[in-house]
Amino acid sequence: MPVNRNFAHIPPFWLPNGHLQTIYPALFRVIKDVKYTRERIFTPDNDFLDLDWSPADKKANDPVGKNKLVILSHGLEGDSSRQYILGMVRVLNVAGYDCLAWNFRSCSGEMNKTSRFYHSGATEDLAAVIQHAIQKGYDKIQLMGFSLGGNLTLKYLGEQGQEISTNIEKSVVFSVPMDLKACSLAIIKLENRVYQSRFLRTLKPKVDKKAQHFPGDINPADFKFVNTLYDFDHIFTAPLHGFTSADHYYESCSSMHFVKNIAIPTLIVNAVNDPIVPSYSLPEGIIADLDHVFLEITGSGGHCGFRPSESSGGIYWSESRALEFLGHK
């Protein structure tokens, strides 16, 4: 589909750039009215995934049934409690959707049981979550992803292609690093070091803890060689998950290589001022020739931000846009 420049999102005047539009929601947006019920499922390799469920609002105008579900995938070093997940869950519940926000391995508050962590291309875990939802009786499923979770979602859809389950209807993803290497190099820039430092600060304790249980697979002393996310992926992510290098990992898992096979309506929304995902890294030429994939590049929004100038009911622009694409606005 033709790439759309969407300037409908207007940020507050006091958030004039992509950095502030990214940081403000992450630090100051508080959502307290989403209540989760946690369920743990087990993976074929004897590990586990923690799933957080939030049922539809029983007062929703849209017919509520057990068969309507949105599965949400969070970003790098995120979890189901991040503001962009909670805000979306709240809006979707009101619109009549049950929601399943799943936590990647090592992200639920308890370290996972195997030597591996999670990564941008670990679609086998998303597939396990989807299959679990189908077994519970959901036959109208929408997929949603943010940042790394968006890349994961697009890769899964591309891998499934025409063989995708008929239970999955649409997909919406935001702030997606479709070219993983370009984004890894972008975050090294001086103006982006605040994001990189935050990610590495939470990754190091995980490496230390994991090394206690798997000393033959992980050497925590190697962290002294990690100065960037690229270094982390080269030293830890790649070898732990069967890749020969960071470049091999990025090339194998970047969703830009998979979107051409997507067979369901899919909306990709990225902001041109996203400090983590540079707009030049988006595969506009590829997507322009696709029948089922829509790319919207907004003039503002930052990375998983999208706070509007006027936030009616605390709803962010991205949440309204998702509902619109799903057919509820």
**Radius of gyration in whole Å, from Cα?**
19 Å
Compute the separation of the termini in Å: 21 Å
Unreliable stretches: none
Percent strand equals 15-25%
Order of helices and strands: EHEEEHEHEHEHHHHEHEH
* Helical fraction: 25-40%
CATH class: Alpha Beta
Lateral arrangement of strands in the main beta sheet: 1-9-8-7-6-4-5-3-2
Mean pLDDT: 95
CATH homologous superfamily heading: Alpha/Beta hydrolase fold, catalytic domain
Taken from the alpha-carbon principal axes, the silhouette is globular
Structural commentary:
The protein is of the alpha/beta class and 329 residues long. The protein has helices spanning 18-28, 83-94, 123-135, 148-160, 180-186, 193-213, 229-240, 246-253, 284-287, 317-326; strands spanning 4-6, 37-42, 48-54, 68-73, 98-103, 140-146, 168-174, 266-271, 293-298. The chain contains ten helices and nine strands. A nine-stranded mixed beta sheet has the order 1-9-8-7-6-4-5-3-2, sandwiched between helices. Helix 4 links the parallel strand 6 and strand 7 (168-174). Helix 3 (123-135) packs across helix 4 and helix 7 (229-240) crosses helix 8. The protein is globular, with a radius of gyration of 19 Å. The model has no long low-confidence stretch (mean pLDDT 95).
Task: Give the arrangement of secondary structure elements.
Blueprint lengths: L3 E3 L11 H11 L8 E6 L5 E7 L13 E6 L9 H12 L3 E6 L19 H13 L4 E7 L1 H13 L7 E7 L5 H7 L6 H21 L15 H12 L5 H8 L12 E6 L12 H4 L5 E6 L18 H10 L3
Parallel strand pairs: 1-9, 4-5, 4-6, 6-7, 7-8, 8-9
Antiparallel strand pairs: 2-3, 3-5
